[in-house]
Amino acid sequence: MRVAVFADIHGKFLLPFKLVHLYQQETGNRIDHILQCGDMGAFPDLAVMDRATLRHARRDRDELGFHDDFLRVKPGIARFLDELDVDMTCVRGNHEDHDFLDGLERETDEPRFPIDAYHRVFVCRTGAKQVFRVGKDVLTFIGVGRIADPKGRTHQRFIQDYERKALQKLHGTREDFDLLISHDKESENVRGYGMPELRELLDRVLFRYHFYGHTGEPHARGLASNGITESVKVRELEFNAQGTLDPGCMIVLEKHGAELDLEVVDQHLTNRITRHNWKIPDSRG
């Protein structure tokens, strides 16, 4: 089993699928699922975009990719996604329409729920166990959405009380998980930075890897505060001034039985997709 991991896509919903398609063509290796670390930019109603997203959207229509390309079926995109046959599971970030996502979450008890017209993009419920199976291989993970707020504000972009309770229920579990997927990073005990709930979860539950985005920092790997879990900052999926993607924006995990191997996809591959060529007309129509 292989999964690809991306961080902040900010409306470019089609881009992770395009990168997975390219990776499969270049390597011959099948990707079975995509994981995404929040800040999807899921805004079906442009009237409720937050100020930061609106500001960026005035310069770059890509910020509106959910509204433009995934809210209603476009035949070309549908054909491309059906042929690729890969789903993407996301956690919430701080730049989403949370009213929209809250409504979908309330309609189901499932650990993840679809949000798009193609039923290819899912959002996972914070604290719910997620299980992917491919043949005999099984991958387990916990998703934690939104960000922390040291001022105790209750705006929907910040972690909610019901989500904290869901995470606290995990504290007594004796189960280990392969992955922790979050938008925010764990708290470093620096006032105003990071999510304390993540630090507490990592202290109480064993994960092999923790992936996150949000911070704008370069891709990096190191040990989490528990000294056991490998912490991986996934570089945001944003085009730089040269129109290319930065190193560490695409991670591939391969699971064979109990073995879990990590590959940082090389720029020689990701640089094949640029700001200027990633919207191929016959996959958008």
Automatic annotation (TrEMBL):
Residues 1-216 form the Calcineurin-like phosphoesterase domain. GO terms for molecular function: hydrolase activity. It comes from the Bacteria. This is Calcineurin-like phosphoesterase superfamily domain. It comes from Arachnia propionica.
